[in-house]
Design brief:
With 150 residues, the protein is of the alpha+beta class. 31% of the residues lie in helices and 27% in strands. The longest helix has 15 residues. The structure holds methionine sulfoxide. The site of methionine sulfoxide (SME) has 15 residues, from β1, α3 and β6. Methionine sulfoxide (SME) binds next to β1, α3 and β6.
């Protein structure tokens, strides 16, 4: 199911008629609409030279967490670790920033441009423990594809 979305993701991202932010927005919309357990889908990017992340395009409930300092929450930890972070159950995490009480799990995959971690894709799910290695592989495909157009 995830793999079947890849051609459309590529088509959206490679459509140079649209601004880059609109293309990323369209990818968020696509994923949130078609993957039943992707309830919130968004990109965070490093905010200039600051040690913080800034919310980019997203699909789902608006969040108060538009700025996240490096090290804070799952997103802030990934900004420092450069590694995927899969959280099967957010209740088990101490360093976690709750965006909505309905969120049960989360996955964050970093986005590298020329080897530098410049952002990430963040997925929140209202289902406990929905993410597998296939989600990691799929989201790595997404971040690599976005990196190509940045
Ligand atoms: N839960 C995230 C914060 C971002 S929201 O999920 C949109 C975290 O702990 O970093």
């Amino acid at each position: 199911m995830l793999n079947s979305l890849k051609p459309e993701v590529k088509e959206i991202l490679q459509n140079t008629e649209n601004p880059v932010n609109s293309r990323m927005q369209a990818v968020c919309n696509l994923l949130q609409k078609h993957v039943p357990y992707y309830d919130w889908v968004g990109f965070y990017f490093r905010n200039g030279k600051k040690e913080e992340l800034k919310l980019g395009p997203y699909a789902g409930t608006p969040t108060d967490h538009t700025i996240i300092p490096f090290g804070k929450g799952i997103c802030g930890q990934v900004a420092l670790s450069n590694k995927n972070f899969v959280v099967p159950d957010v209740k088990a995490q101490d360093n976690y920033i709750a965006c909505s009480i309905s969120v049960k799990s989360e996955i964050v995959v970093p986005l590298f441009v020329k080897g530098e971690n410049i952002g990430q894709i963040d997925i929140d799910s209202n289902t406990v423990d929905p993410f597998t290695a296939q989600d990691e592989e799929f989201l790595e495909f997404i971040t690599a594809s976005v990196a190509e157009i940045l």
